[in-house]
Amino acid sequence: MVALLIAFLLGVTVPARLRQREMAIEAKNFVTGRVIDRALFQYKLKHKTLPDPTDWMPQLATLPDPDGSIAAALREANSEGYQPTAEVASVGGPRSRGLRGAIIQKASLTSTDDATSGGLTYSSYELLLPGEDKILGTEDDLVSRDGVISKVQNVAKGGVGRSVSAGALQP
Asked: Which of 45, 95, 133, 138 has a Cα at 20 to 30 A from 78?
């Protein structure tokens, strides 16, 4: 009877232990994503743009890293998973010369503090992080969009990070 009771208790606790193991692995991957997001934020504060997608890992490695967390997170990341984007404004049509009451007619935007000496200024990013299997493109991957980290399988199902059309929120 004691042996059956012990076997029953072990059988009951095994699923809970497996869930805890899964949660620990997921937490480790989320920490990697948070550290890289912090490094991207520090880089953007320093250079007023996000790093170039061709050599973003060496650029982030130049940041101050007293505890070695950025270097450890970059070892876990995949170089093909980073994609920055830039918001580019466009002119809708021909300009009207007959604006009455216009006070400011011409403005120079080249002398602002946010202007960078390099070409394109990246303003947002998407970062794919491999999961436990260390392979991109599987269900256990994580995606970080401008600091918001979620599982790829949740994004594909319509969770956090899915773009909503025409401004109306859908349930």
From this structure: 45
